[in-house]
Amino acid sequence: MPPPWDDEDGLLSDDLLEEQEEWVEVGEEGVHGFRAALFSSQAAHYARFRPSYPEHIFNHIYDFAKAALGNEPGLGSRELALDVGCGHGVVALELAKKYSKVVGVDASVHQLQHAHQGPTISYLHAPCEALSQHLPAQSVDLIAMAETLHWVDQQAFYEQCRRILKPTGVLAIWCYDLNEFAPIGPHQTQATVDQANGLMQAHTYGTLGPYWDDRRQYIDRRYRGLEPQTSVFRHCKHIDNLSMEHIMSMDHFMGYLASWSPYAAYRATHPDRPDPLVELRAQLKELLAVTDDAAPSLRLLWPVFFLLCKDPVQ
């Protein structure tokens, strides 16, 4: 069976589009319910194509956790870590290299069905605003949350973190923003890469613009204004100068774009319109001199930003 992004009639199947049309009509929670259904429907695609986080991203977390202890952390300070909003568990898998036990938490059972497994990793189907119903007070060393803060009730989540973190525990929140192309190989110039980035801006904010959730604005602001109150965490800081890089094929990049919830919303709302990724693929291939869609030929950079919190008020 060919992968879905090779189907130029649409990256989403007709059956899935029919389901999504029903969601448009009967979403239990209005627009947000519709988007949640779309996100769940894309779970397998999300798990396969979303970029992973490089080692230096996790090193920032571990350094922050070490500083919160005031000394080199021993085993007792790495007993339990949570990956909240874990999706397919890519963060949980990495945390399991450092922590004795990792629990991935997600409100979407569809995401958890595609989660990475490991001998010290378990998964919990629950909203992040109810963590203390499932975990003892002052039992957690690290709470990690990637790509999720903008979707949740932030202050309710922070209150849950305050309750279940150890006094020396830390909360590490991060997110990546829209990628940019960078030159790779002799046939890509800065000029053609700039044009390709312009196409991505037009696709993201033009074609898909009306289909982004309103909470996209929090990412644009790099989570500034979403900090917990000082009555919950005594110390928080932002880090805005990080990035991550991946080399990938055009096929993989199209799969990544197809995992976006606004793309799924666009396709569900306009099933009779041409798939915008078909034209975008053709334009990018020409600009970036891609002749083999399966070969690593794209250099992609994502800006990454952190919100790090310690000293929970208990």
Which second-level CATH architecture of the largest domain applies? Answer: 3-Layer(aba) Sandwich
Q: Characterize the overall form.
A: elongated
Q: Sketch the topology as an H/E string, one letter per element.
A: HHHHEHEHEEHEEHHEHHHE
Which class do the helix and strand fractions yield? alpha/beta
Distance between the termini: 55 Å
Give me the number of helical elements. 12
CATH class of the largest domain: Alpha Beta
Radius of gyration: 20 Å
CATH topology of the largest domain: Rossmann fold
Strand content: 15-25%
Number of strands: 8
Low-confidence residue ranges = 1-39
Count of the separate structural domains: 2
The CATH superfamily of the largest domain appears as Vaccinia Virus protein VP39
Into which percent range does the helicity of residues fall? 25-40%
Largest sheet: 8 strands, mixed
> What is the residue-averaged pLDDT?
86
Keywords: Methyltransferase, Transferase
Protein name: SAM-dependent methyltransferase
Domain Methyltransferase type: 82-173
Organism: Micractinium conductrix
Task: Summarize, please.
This protein has about 325 residues and is an alpha/beta fold. The chain is about 40% helix and about 25% strand. One of its GO terms (biological process) is methylation.
Walk me through what this model shows.
It is a single chain. With 314 residues, this protein is of the alpha/beta class. The chain has 2 domains: 137 residues, no CATH class; 150 residues, Rossmann fold, CATH 3.40.50. It is built from 12 helices and 8 strands. Strands 1, 2, 3, 4, 5, 6, 7 and 8 form an 8-stranded mixed β-sheet that branches. Helix 7 links the parallel strand 4 and strand 5. Helix 1 packs antiparallel against helix 2, helix 2 crosses helix 11 and helix 3 runs antiparallel to helix 10. 37% of the residues are buried. It comes from Micractinium conductrix.
